[in-house]
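Marked as duplicate of an earlier ticket. Keeping the data here for the record.
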Amino acid sequence: MNATRPTAVSPDALSSPSDTSLSTRLLGAATAFALGAFFVWGAGFAGAETLHDTAHDARHAMGLPCH
C-alpha cells in the first residue's frame, strides 16, 4: 500500500504583499474608502424608519426571526 503524504507549499509559490503593484494597492484602498464613506454617509442621513426596514429585511434574508 502506497500512502501519499501531503506536500508543503513552497514559500516562493505564495505572493507577498510587496509583490502587489502600487496601483493595485491604491485602487483597493480607494475602493474600500469609497464603500466605507458610502455606508457612513448613508447611515448618517437615513431616517430611523429606513434603517429599521433595512435591518428587518436583512434579518429576513438571513432566515433569522425578527418578531
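See parent ticket for discussion. Helices lie at 22-45, 48-61.
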